[in-house]
Amino acid sequence: MNAKPETTAVLDVAELRKDFPILTRRVHDKPLVYLDSANTSQKPQVVIDTVSHFFEHSNANVARAVHQLGDEATTAYEATRDKLAAFIGANARDEIVFTSGTTQAINLVAYSYALPRLGEGDSILTTQMEHHANIVPWQLVCQRSGASLKVAPITESGELIVEAFVKALTPDVKLACVTHVSNVLGTINPVRQLARECRKRGIPLLVDGSQAAPHLPLDVKSLGCDFYALTGHKMLGPTGTGALWARREHLDAIPPFFGGGEMIREVKFSGTTFADVPHKFEAGTPNIAGFVGLGAAIDYLNDLGMDRIAATEHELGGYMAEALAGVPGLRIYGQAPDKAAVFSFLIEGIHAHDLATMLDLEGVAVRSGHHCAHPLMQFYGVPATVRASLAFYNTREEIDRFVEAIAKVRKLLA
Ligand SMILES: Cc1ncc(COP(=O)(O)O)c(C=O)c1O
Q1: Residues near ligand 1 with C-beta < 6 Å?
Q2: Contact at 8 Å (CB) between 181 and 130?
Q3: Active site residue 225
Q4: Is the pTM of this model over 0.85?
Q5: How far lies 134's CA from each of 19, 116, 193, 208, 224, in Å?
């Protein structure tokens, strides 16, 4: 994890694990070791209870009813907007657009912001280490507009080549896009520096914060970017929740992405006027209970403290790196010095899927595959890797069990 003050205390993990009921589960008659938090995080009891409590006590649609339940639902749903705005350091709650996740947030920017501004000869800049969610929407709007996609390169150790990124910020670039933390490599990109370079040239910067929001203290104002996308299910919240943060001037300037109920001021057949920001981007009935649950997740993260979460994961990541260094024939993809606790690797002679399947039989949940990052796999010339990703609720004992399980599989397969 990125550099933390040495004094930041780590969390009492044994105690807080009691908040996560799923962590006591057994899988294939072994205690579960969940090392797939980059895929989706586990949920504390308070999030589960908040969602059930909502359905049991306050379930109603938001912003449509004057009755008590409608009021309770709207209050609880809108409270999450305040919590999320504070959590990421936004200037105002109106800068938070609720989406179903990062993918929808990025598509909103692609179709509402980028597409109308793109033409022949223009380009969008992305990087070699992006998730498909930060590649494919750009390809689609490029195809429609005649613009092209430029790709900033990375080093063999999985770090963005910043000079090349900056050099690529030529006047044809109408938007630059980068992940804050790589979901495959764990690399933490120097977003503040990239945003500064983009701003100097008047190029807006979109940051994919999917893998940063659950792990790092965030302040979008000080990052200096224009758009920040995040997903709720990776930060202890329910699936189908997420958000786009954007500078108010962008949100005011761009048209809605989806049309329908909830996002209008007045509809006439001669023309429709739209609700104020952010509601003009939120057509239809949202995932109300999910967002109420996300509010509880944010409270939970705040109670633990994002700097203590970061310090805990940093320490655990160091332990994991050392443990994996002792495994013969294991190669880690992503060797940036201050990286997040995400470890993609291959072991000589063992296919990624075979390894993940055998680890599952030992109760260890890891992900194998391309991690929605084909171009990154192509860069390394591999079809797939195994990825073990940590969260603050993991322990050293779990890492020991993981490494013991790898040793067992190596004996059988390598
Ligand atoms: C870096 C990154 N970007 C985008 C996404 C897409 O998030 P979602 O599927 O929640 O929209 C993910 C999810 O794996 C991710 O890791």
Answers
A1: 101-103, 131, 133-134, 179, 183, 208, 210-211, 231, 242, 372
A2: no
A3: no
A4: yes
A5: 33, 18, 20, 7, 19
